[in-house]
C-alpha cells in the first residue's frame, strides 16, 4: 500500500512541530525531521525548500487550528457567553507546545509574515461573523473588541511558559466572561479624549 | 500632636486593603478595619457610610496608582519602547494584592461603577498623550491600541492568582515589546471584512 502524499507532508509537519518544541528551532536539522517522520531527506525537499518554510507551515497549521476552533465555537454556540466559553476551550488546547512554536515563528520569521497576515484575516472574518450574530450583546465597536481579544489571547500564549494548559483554560474562561461583563464600561472615556 | 484627618482616612484605606486581600471582602467587618487602623468605629463613619464605600475607595486608589504609573512612564520615557518598559514596571507593582481587590470590586460593585468610569477616562487620557507623543511609532488607530493594552493588563491581573509579581513583570515587558513589533500586522485584515 502506497503512502499518500498528504500523509507524508502531514507526518513531516507533526515531526517538525514536536522536535521544534522539544529542542528549539536552531537545534533541529532537516535530517532529524526526516528521520522522525520516517521519510527520506529528499522527500522533505519535495514539499519544503528550507527549514524556514517548514516553520512557516507548522505555524500556519496552528493558526488554521485557531480559526477552525473559533469557527467551531461560533457554530456550536447559541449566545455570546457560550461562544466565549467554547473559544476558551478550543484556544487553550495544546497551548504549551503551540506557544513555543509561535514564539519561534515570531522570532525567526518576523520579516516574512505574509502567510500570517492571510490567516489573521481569516481569523478576523470568524470574529466578524460572531460580532454580527451576537450583535445585541456587544457594546463596543468591532475593531476594539477584536484588538481586546487579541490582547487576551496573546497574553495567554505568552503566559504559557509559566502555567499549565489547565490554568490557561481557566484563565481564558474567566477573562472572556469578565470582558463580557465589563465591555460596557470600555468606551466610557470616549467623550473625555 | 493631633493626627491629621487625611492620615486617618489613609490609614483606614490601607487597613481595609490589607484585610480585604488577606481575608476576603465578605469576611472583614468595619470594626476590624477600625481596630487595625487604630481609629474608633465612629471615625470610619465620618469618611464612609458603608463597607461598599470603603471598597470603592480602596479600588479607586489602585486605579489612581495605575494612572500615576502610566503618567510617570510617559514623563520619564524618550520613545515608545521605554514607555512600554516603564509601564510594565509600574503596573506590575503589588499585583498579587491589587488583583484580589480589583476582582472583589468587579464582583461586588458591578452595578455601581461610576467611579471606575471616571478613572478609566483619566487612564485613557494618559494613553492618548502617549499616542500623540510617539505618534510615528504606533501603526494602529488609538482605540484599537487602547483596547489591546486593556486586554493585556486585564490578563496580567487575572493571571496574578497563578504567578508571582516578578513573573508578571517579565510577562508584561515581553508582551508589550511583542505588541510593539507585531502591531504593524494587526490591521492586516481590515480589507478582508
Automatic annotation (TrEMBL), chains A, B:
Spans through the membrane: none
InterPro entries found in the cross-reference section: DNA-bd_HTH_TetR-type_CS (IPR023772), Homeodomain-like_sf (IPR009057), HTH-type_Tx_Regulator (IPR050624), HTH_TetR (IPR001647)
Sequence ranges assigned to domain HTH tetR-type in this UniProt record: 6-66
DNA-binding region boundaries: 29-48
Pfam family, one: TetR_N
SUPFAM superfamilies associated with the record: Homeodomain-like (SSF46689)
GO terms of molecular function: DNA binding
Keywords: DNA-binding, Transcription, Transcription regulation
PANTHER family listed in its UniProt record: ACREF/ENVCD OPERON REPRESSOR-RELATED, ACREF_ENVCD OPERON REPRESSOR-RELATED
Protein's name according to its UniProt entry: Transcriptional regulator, TetR family
Amino acid at each position: 500500500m502506497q503512502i499518500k502524499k498528504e500523509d507524508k507532508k502531514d507526518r513531516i509537519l507533526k515531526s517538525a512541530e514536536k522536535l521544534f518544541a522539544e529542542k528549539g528551532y536552531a537545534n533541529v536539522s532537516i535530517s532529524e525531521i526526516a528521520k522522525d517522520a520516517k521519510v527520506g531527506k529528499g522527500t522533505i525537499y519535495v514539499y519544503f525548500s528550507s527549514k524556514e518554510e517548514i516553520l512557516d507551515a507548522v505555524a500556519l497549521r496552528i493558526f488554521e487550528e485557531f480559526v477552525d476552533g473559533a469557527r467551531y465555537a461560533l457554530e456550536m454556540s447559541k449566545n455570546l457567553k457560550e461562544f466565549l466559553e467554547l473559544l476558551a476551550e478550543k484556544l487553550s488546547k495544546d497551548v504549551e507546545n503551540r506557544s513555543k512554536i509561535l514564539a519561534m515563528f515570531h522570532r525567526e520569521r518576523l520579516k516574512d509574515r505574509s502567510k500570517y497576515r492571510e490567516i489573521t484575516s481569516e481569523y478576523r472574518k470568524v470574529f466578524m461573523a460572531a460580532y454580527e450574530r451576537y450583535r445585541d450583546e456587544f457594546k463596543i465597536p468591532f475593531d476594539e473588541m477584536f484588538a481586546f481579544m487579541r490582547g487576551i489571547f496573546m497574553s495567554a500564549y505568552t503566559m504559557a511558559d509559566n502555567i499549565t494548559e489547565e490554568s490557561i483554560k481557566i484563565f481564558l474562561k474567566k477573562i472572556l466572561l469578565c470582558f463580557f461583563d465589563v465591555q460596557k464600561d470600555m468606551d466610557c472615556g470616549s467623550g473625555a479624549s
